[in-house]
Amino acid sequence: MSTTVTQAPPAEQRTLPVVAGPAAVNHNSFHPGDAASDKAFQALARGTRSGTLKLRGIPTFTDVYAQRQWMKEHMAAAFRYFGKKGYGDGVSGHISMRDPILKDHFWMNPFAKHFSSIKASDLVLVDADGYVTEGGAQLPINEAGFMIHSEIHKARPDVIAAAHTHSVYGKTWSAFGKPVEMLTQDACNFYGRLSVYDDHGGIALAQDEGRQIAEALGKENLACILQNHGLLTVGRTVDEAAFLFSSLDNACYSQLLADAAAANGIQKKIISDEVAKYTADAVQGAHNFYTEFQPEFELIVEETNGRVLQ
C-alpha cells in the first residue's frame, strides 16, 4: 500500500547573464508567465532606479529546434553538476526531460555513462513506451529510470524535468520515512511542496512502482523522499529540477547533523509556519529556481571549455 506524507500546504542563448536590460520580444513561451512581470521574482534583485534593468529568468524561443538544443545543453550541464556533487552510484540515477517537439517523448541519460562525462550529444531520446528512437544517441537507457520517470511525466504535464539519484545524504535520511523539517531558510524551498513515498518495493522494474511514486509525488509537490531509496525532484526546467535536488540533499544533510546534535541535548528551533510560508512564497517560482542553477551552469561550461554543450 502506498501512502504519502505531505507538509502543511501554504494558505538558446548559451551565455545568459542573470541580469539583463529590456528583453527582446518573447515568442513561443514554454514557461509559466513572463519573467519581467513576475513581481515575486523581480523582488529578489535590484536594478536601476527607473526599473528598466530586470532579472532575465527563463528564455523563450521562436525556433523549437533551438529550444531543444538549449534544453539538452542545460540537461548535460545538470549531469556534470551531479557528477561534481558525487551523486553517481554505479548505474543508478537519472534525469528525464520532456521534449519540446515530440511532447510524448523525453530525453534521458545513457545507461552506465558517468554523469561527469555527459555531453548534450550523449543524451538519448525515448518514446512514450521507453524505446530508444532516432534523434538522440543510440544507446540503452536505465529500465528502472524509465519506469519511474515515465509515470511522473504522464501524471504531471506541468513537469518538464525530473531528477532522481541515490545521493548519500538523501538516501540516508530517506530511511526515516519523514519529510525534512524547516530548520533553515533554504529548507523553505520545499515548504508545503514535499511528500514522502513510504512503500519501497525494491528496484523499479515494473510500472506499478512508478505509478505509486507518481501518486505519492502528487499534483503540486516539487519533491518526494522515496523511503529506503533516495530523493526525487521535478521542475519546469531541468535547471530547476537539478537545483532543487541539490537543495533537498543539503537539507537532508543539515537534518542528519541537527538530529545528531539534538540527541545530545541541544535543542533545535524550527522555523514557524508563518515565516516558512513567507519565504516559500518569495522563492518557489519557476524563474527563481531556474536562475538559482545558472551560476553552476556557467561554471561547468567554463570548466569544460564548452565541451558539455557538444
Features of the shown structure:
single chain, alpha+beta, 7-stranded mixed β-sheet, 8 helices, disordered N terminus, Aldolase-II_Adducin_sf
Task: Provide a descriptive summary of the structure in words.
Residues 73-256 form the Class II aldolase/adducin N-terminal domain. One of its GO terms (cellular component) is cytoskeleton. GO terms for molecular function: actin filament binding. The chain has a single domain (68-309), classed as Class II aldolase/adducin N-terminal domain (L-fuculose-1-phosphate Aldolase, 3-Layer(aba) Sandwich), CATH 3.40.225. Helices cover 36% and strands 11% of the residues. It contains eight helices and nine strands. A seven-stranded mixed beta sheet has the order 5-4-3-6-9-8-7, sandwiched between helices. β3 (94-98) and β4 form a beta hairpin. The chain starts with 18 loop residues before the first strand and ends in a 7-residue tail after the last helix. The model is unreliable at 1-32 (pLDDT under 50).
